[in-house]
Description:
Blueprint: E1 2-7, H1 17-30, E2 34-39, E3 42-47, E4 54-60, E5 64-70, H2 73-78, H3 82-110, H4 117-122, H5 126-139, H6 141-151, H7 163-175, H8 182-204, H9 208-228, H10 235-249, H11 255-271, H12 283-289, H13 295-308, H14 313-326, H15 329-338, H16 343-350, H17 358-371, H18 375-387, H19 392-406, H20 409-419, H21 423-437, H22 440-449, H23 453-460, H24 466-471, H25 473-479, H26 481-498, H27 502-517, H28 521-534, H29 539-548
Antiparallel strand pairs: 1-5, 2-3, 3-4, 4-5
Helix pairs in contact: 1-3, 5-6, 6-7, 6-8, 7-8, 7-9, 8-9, 8-10, 9-10, 9-11, 12-13, 13-14, 14-15, 15-17, 17-18, 19-20, 21-22, 22-23, 25-26, 26-28, 27-28, 27-29
Amino acid sequence: xxxxxxxxxxxxxxxxxxxxxxxxxxxxxxxxxxxxxxxxxxxxxxxxxxxxxxxxxxxxxxxxxxxxxxxxxxxxxxxxxxxxxxxxxxxxxxxxxxxxxxxxxxxxxxxxxxxxxxxxxxxxxxxxxxxxxxxxxxxxxxxxxxxxxxxxxxxxxxxxxxxxxxxxxxxxxxxxxxxxxxxxxxxxxxxxxxxxxxxxxxxxxxxxxxxxxxxxxxxxxxxxxxxxxxxxxxxxxxxxxxxxxxxxxxxxxxxxxxxxxxxxxxxxxxxxxxxxxxxxxxxxxxxxxxxxxxxxxxxxxxxxxxxxxxxxxxxxxxxxxxxxxxxxxxxxxxxxxxxxxxxxxxxxxxxxxxxxxxxxxxxxxxxxxxxxxxxxxxxxxxxxxxxxxxxxxxxxxxxxxxxxxxxxxxxxxxxxxxxxxxxxxxxxxxxxxxxxxxxxxxxxxxxxxxxxxxxxxxxxxxxxxxxxxxxxxxxxxxxxxxxxxxxxxxxxxxxxxxxxxxxxxxxxxxxxxxxxxxxxxxxxxxxxxxxxxxxxxxxxxxxxxxxxx
Length: 549
């Protein structure tokens, strides 16, 4: 028999979770065919459904398990198996059931009324209650946890800022002597939730001071625990803590007392590795919103935190939201510049703007547009600028400036779509500004969008730009096919007379491809004949074109 001693009522703390689960399944299957004998504390259990039948022995003293054995192969290798776990669960349940029967029988015979734990402790002195809870803690750490939650104020000195933190750490140590695993963490969360409930009960009873001590313990443990075990899911319990604290601060707390608690919670942020796990529900945001003169200090403390933890997006969002309230333009602009390429984060940052922040939203969108590089970021920044503006007239001005800056037909079409019925007036204003700037290609784009072929052809005689011809090939061909054919011949001849070599050949191929794509294959063929006839000495060019077409 393998010799090992531990308390029977805490067997589950000494058996791995997977064996406990397997043992429970075995008991469910074998409960009607289970052979059990108990001779002087030596329990022998046969699990009938197994093949072959497995015999398991457990030696139990007055309160402790002193040893166990099993004739399965797994036990011989590991000194533990699902059969042992099943046996311990059966024995523990059986003994508890027998003890309850004795208590019920004894209670009936003596005709005593039911005694409530709460009624008992109310009549105990501090020293008696302390001895009672400590005695229970020695017997069963799990039971002691709940007792300490309710009566911790009797265990340590009153008004000690760390007493609930000490309580939580002791419970955590009893729960998991080594590393805090995910399974143990779930049980730890239940304990923390009990503390939160107790704090809210105290707050409802106007015991604000004792309630504040619980919050100090909770947030100190959250700071250290989430920093040490980053792989565990702290987010949910963190949200519950912060929601409860938010509810606490909504109470009618004495001004000086509230200021004192805010200072102590700020110290936790300063002295412990507190992590912001949510952009809105975090200590910095809560304390900022419920403080008076300390707002600026809390804001500066958050700013320093955000700078040190630049990879934590929750921290950046929290800082941004308060920087908006503080109207710290320099800080907001610095954040925009720092994350100008991270559009997912910038989207979240700009989502904090509300209707009352319209001017600030516009200012930051303009800054993002000025600092953006690349079409994707510029497009996003311009969309933010439009979203920040509620005045349609102002929006049209933005679209017009965009069209003047980018100079593409697509931007003019977007302006036309936004203008709607006002397009005629907007187009005249745009035409006037383009002419003043002397931007002939953009003016040609405007005429194309307006489908003003007469003005476009008239203007084309003043523009020497092959790109304009190719971009609007169909439009010009429809307006004046002969002019288009002559201009293309002239541009190709001019290019070939000026340039030679492979790059010139590549350019010619690209031009002919674009003509083909525009459905102007006849123009392409005319140009090929022209090149083959008038530039026949360009052997390399001729070969390139014949290979391509």
